[in-house]
Each structure stands twice: as structure tokens, then as C-alpha cells.
Write a structure and sequence with these properties.
Blueprint (H helix, E strand, L loop, with lengths): L3 E3 L1 H17 L1 H20 L12 E4 L5 E7 L4 E8 L15
Parallel strand pairs: 1-4
Antiparallel strand pairs: 2-3, 3-4
Helix pairs in contact: 1-2
Length: 100
């Protein structure tokens, strides 16, 4: 398994989305957090098998929620670049090449 690190802004996006779901329904927030956790585990197993999203970026589309987990594969680590809603501001995270 590949080690995984989070871009600071991606961590914030995950927290904001989880909080929003918690305000709507606590069980939805738990389901969202669990699905993101499962996505990260799947990414860590073999990140290069997942589809690309522009140069050097890959993504994992959540099944039950309208979110992508956008990541890049660096030399020895997978970096989560964004937890992005599929209907909001496409590509806003493209500038995130550093920061952890």
C-alpha cells in the first residue's frame, strides 16, 4: 500500500463537507466519511489504476455522494489534492501543487 498524505485544503474540504452532511443528517455524515475512508484505502492499494483527470492527476468518484477524491502520485506517496463536489467549480484545485 502507498502512504497517503493530504493537501491542507483537501483536509478542509473534507471537514466542511462532513459538517454539512452532519447538519442535514448524522447518519449521512457517517456514511460520507466512511465512503471517503474506503476511497482512500482503495486509492492507496493501486493509485495508478484509477482514471486520470488532466496531467498527473487521478480521481476516485464516490458511489453514493457527488464528490471526487482528486489525487496525484508522487515518487513515494499519494497526495490527496481535493475532495471536490462534482457540480461546483470544476478544476478549482488545479493550482494545488504543494502544501500539506
Amino acid at each position: 500500500m502507498w502512504p497517503v498524505e493530504w493537501h491542507d485544503e483537501a483536509e478542509e474540504e473534507l471537514a466542511v463537507a462532513t459538517d454539512w452532511y452532519a447538519e442535514q443528517n448524522v447518519s449521512a455524515a457517517v456514511a460520507f466519511a466512511n465512503e471517503v475512508r474506503d476511497a482512500i484505502l482503495s486509492i492507496a492499494v493501486d493509485p495508478t489504476r484509477l482514471p486520470t483527470l488532466g496531467p498527473e492527476r487521478h480521481f476516485y468518484l464516490l458511489k453514493r455522494f457527488p464528490y471526487l477524491v482528486v489525487f496525484r502520485v508522487l515518487e513515494s506517496v499519494v497526495q490527496i489534492m481535493a475532495v471536490a463536489h462534482t457540480s461546483r467549480r470544476p478544476g478549482y484545485w488545479l493550482h494545488r501543487d504543494s502544501g500539506r
